[in-house]
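Incident log, structure service

09:12 report received: a user says their structure output differs between two submissions of the same chain.
09:20 pulled the input from the user's history:
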Amino acid sequence: MRRFVTGVCVTSTYMDKDGERLHDAMTVNSITSLSLDPPLVALSFRHESRFLARILASRCFAVSILSAHHEAVAMTFAQSQDERAWAVTTMLGEPGAATGALVLDGPGWMECVLDRSIELGDHTMVVGEVVATGRGAAAAPLIFLEGEFRSLEAVTS
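09:34 re-ran on a clean worker, output below:
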């Protein structure tokens, strides 16, 4: 699978605790478009993931597509939850109107409500119904190949 080129996104969700909304975000490259009617997408997380637990509790998430100039963002949110917690508070994003999950400025984004979760092997797949979308400025995508973040131009040139 190291040879399979994937796009890179940041997904976000939150949990409400003691009257405070605690956002969480992480880098993913396992998003799949499942259906157009209704619009469904899927993400997969390890069973023991705290991020997964937060999606299951909030029943919503957002996905922001990253451009090539977002490599530092992708690296930041590819760390463990404890290591990336501080970055969420400084993330250049806004809570989405449909779900309240953080949306980053980038080539595109979507907000999803949890449709179902399915345990598969050592991961749980979450299926979200897309309830809002948006587009930003067109830009070269950030991709993941051979265990590294790259830009599409670097691969094709």
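09:41 both user submissions now match this output. Likely a transient worker issue. Closing.
09:42 reviewer note: DSSP finds four helices and twelve strands in the chain. The chain has a mean pLDDT of 91.
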